[in-house]
Amino acid sequence: METHNISIDIPNDILLALNETANDLKKRIKLTLAIELYKKQKLTIGKAAQLSEMSRLEFETELSNQKISISNLRKEDVFRDLEKLK
Q1: 62 Cβ neighbours under 8 A, 6+ residues apart
Q2: CA dist., res. 67 & res. 14, Å (int)
Q3: What is the rounded CA–CA span in Å between residue 73 and residue 58?
């Protein structure tokens, strides 16, 4: 898989204030970005899991822990599909 490197500069005192290593912060940023892009329906759950460097199950568990739906289906979509099946 081809990747692109995107870097951002974080002042050292921010890492100290967060009490995190640079690697821990990188993981948290990637997870937060993946969740936000998933919530905005910019990424599928599978692609969001890939961005967060988690398995799909791990990502779904994280969404569940944060009370975020793992399905983008709306009630109207389900009822419309039911009507089509009749």
Answers
A1: 31, 35, 52, 54
A2: 28
A3: 21
3-class state of residue 57 by DSSP: helix
The domain total for the chain is 1
In a domain, 2, yes or no: no
Q: List the alpha helices (DSSP H) in the chain.
A: 12-18, 22-39, 45-51, 56-65, 75-85
Return the pLDDT at 83: 84
- Is the model's pLDDT at 52 over the cut of 90? yes
Cα 85 versus chain centre, distance: 33
User: In this structure, what token pair is assigned to residue 27?
Assistant: 């993981």
